[in-house]
Amino acid sequence: MNEFVSVVRGVGAYLPEKVLTNDDLGRMVDTNDAWITERTGIKKRHIAADGETTSDMAAEASRRALAAAGLTAADIDLIVVATATPDFTFPATATVVQNKLGITRGAAFDIQAVCSGFVYAIATADNFLVRGQFERALVIGAETFSRILDWSDRGTCVLFGDGAGAIVLERQEKSAAKDRGVKSVHLRSDGRYKDLLWVDGGPSSTQTVGHLRMTGNQVFKHAVSKISESVRAATEMAGIAVSEVDWFVPHQANQRILTAVADKLGLDDHKVVSTVAEHGNTSAASVPLALSVAIADGRVKTGDLVLIEAIGGGFAWGAALIRM
Length: 324
Description:
CATH topology of the largest domain: Peroxisomal Thiolase, Chain A, domain 1
CATH architecture of the largest domain: 3-Layer(aba) Sandwich
Number of strands: 13
Radius of gyration: 18 Å
Oligomer: single chain
């Protein structure tokens, strides 16, 4: 019986044209560039245009990932979209993307694990591929968080932006993959912490969309400890030391969290891919956005060992180790 592994064939990203700088926010709420930069490392974020949806951004990121992979939409038979800001309550945003790409075969569905959604989506697609049930998957993280922000709350509106990132995962026989592919995934969640990061609306509770609410200092504390735990678990599962990792591509939530996690794990600064200054926290989109930048500028190359991680509302968190 053949053993399969999920190999990354291509990565793509999309950011909306509209840019909202810290100075712009200073004219909207009681804040300024120095305050935001010191506490978050964020300098700007991108905001979806009127009428621009999560599926629009996801479809464009997917086209770019397919182009990078040298493939077409016809080569895809599985789409997994990680999003907390879907186009509709239903159908799944993944099916909308499927239609926009002209794909009429296979399966498409959404994953909802907020900021950790992309890691959960990688885990889900990987399981389908290694069992031989699908051949190639588009794994997408896409968000329009600007639509659920309270723009009068300076504690949250300065943090988030919109965007999308996608990767193409391909099923390959382990013997032919030359050690490439998803090596391990570690997922966790603990619903006791719901009230620290949540949206105060929903179809069955308030019949509204609601706004994002967060207790920032508590989220920071849990993020550092829980992410570090997941990273260590993922590397141990793969039998690889953290020091062997070539690149650390974390969820781009806050530069202070990125730095604290890297310090706790003993990772060298030069191994940490940080793009949070350029687009803020884009939730499920942030890891593939950062990975796309690191591939485009030549840092991440074929054969490199990449560690991704994220934590989001729930809490839900996880890490994955991938040989590119």
